Amino acid sequence: MKPTQATNIILLLTSLRVFPVFLLNLHHHFYLRLGPTSKIGFYVVSAAAACHVDDETGLLGFKSGIRADPSGMLASWKKGTDCCKWSGVTCLTGDRVTALSLAGQPNNLTTSLTGTISPSLSKLNYLDGLYLQDLKYLGGPFPDSLFTLPKLLFVYIENNKLSGPIPTNIANLVQLEALSLQGNQFSGPIPSSIAELTQLTQLKLGGNLLTGTIPLGIQRLRNLTLLHLERNQLSGPIPDLFSGLSNLRSITLSNNNFTGTIPGSISSLAPKLAYLELGHNSLTGKIPDFLGKFHALDTLDLSWNHFSGTVPKSFANLTKIFNLDLSHNKLVDPFPELHVRAKCGIKMKLDEWKPAETYFYDYIDLSENQITGSPVKLLNRTDYLVGFYASGNKLKFNLESMRFVKSLKHLDLSRNLVYGKVPKAISGLSELNVSYNHLCGQLPLTKFPASAFAGNDCLCGSPLPQCKA
């Protein structure tokens, strides 16, 4: 069914409160929103009337705060025309603007806006969704104008250049169901008042300059499905606040300065949690046995921490894991046998791994641990391996016994106990490092620098010194 000039067809599909996604067509005829509610409905809305004068004034005020618009994103925003038909504007309540969605393309600098968010947005009294994403040069502080919008439910101000603190009066937005400020330059602490936003299903503050600790009050946000605080400068221990957050599906705290151990209350999330990313911190202690009970887990990243001891035998129960990264810790033998049946690439740190299926594995990372033995049996079963990273271990095997599949492009065996000759098959690689092992003999013709072969017993030939007669 096609919309007429006087009627918009509005399809509103709102599904489970799990990973809501918002897709807003920038044209005025069709609007699709997958949001954090639980109903499905169809609405027909009249578009005969021009938009409300307050909304036109508010939007033109926003445009006046934009100094550069190289792609003409706001070209259709002209005074005296129906603002409900402007690019990025949606009206679902008669002549009132209900959503503003302006998005650039992440890798295209011309799809950007330079300027600040005008306070005139406070005139959009029926606005329930604000989506300003990947605009790159949109700056200024957090827009105070949002605090006066009574119907605002979804705020996605992502991958721009907003800066300054997240204001403490963020608590005034008590009706918010999703707040994402990721990919900006906000600094200072996460305000404790954020605990007042008890309707939130998503809290995404990653990729900023935030400091301090995680507020304990976040435990009051019992509707949360996503908690993403990665790539900040947060510190202190991870608070033991997860026991009441039973709806969480994704926790991303990687690339911060967290210390201490993994809190025990995370164990209460075992039935539903799909993503747990704690990599690139300073966490210590043993990896908790309870993580083996997370049967829904897709991704577990504990890399680049200070975990010690062995990996729990309970990890054999992680049969749905797609991405497991335990590299760059202080883990020791033995590694438990895993029964992973993944359908995509996987990165794992292990010693004697006997997976039921290796056909789809394309990346394996064992770097910087104390793994011993030979990986040859495993590697020779991987027909589509792209990268094998095992630097800084105690792997001992003859390099000539390894099968180099055509797909293999990245191989790092540096600082191990690898011996034998360097095979001609390395010519098919794009990246190689076998430095500081016990390799010997003349090198085949190679495109790699001398640093890739340094520190071995008796390698010779270009790019190293010539072999002696």
Automatic annotation (TrEMBL):
Domain of life: Eukaryota
Membrane topology term: Single-pass membrane protein
Chain segments annotated as transmembrane: 6-26
CC per GO annotation: membrane
GO biological process, one term: response to other organism
Protein name as annotated: Leucine-rich repeat-containing N-terminal plant-type domain-containing protein
Domain Leucine-rich repeat-containing N-terminal plant-type: residue ranges: 54-91
Gene3D superfamilies: Ribonuclease Inhibitor
Keyword line: Glycoprotein, Leucine-rich repeat, Membrane, Repeat, Signal, Transmembrane, Transmembrane helix
Entry-linked Pfam families: LRR_1, LRR_8, LRRNT_2
Location(s), subcellular: Membrane
Species this chain originates from: Sesamum angolense
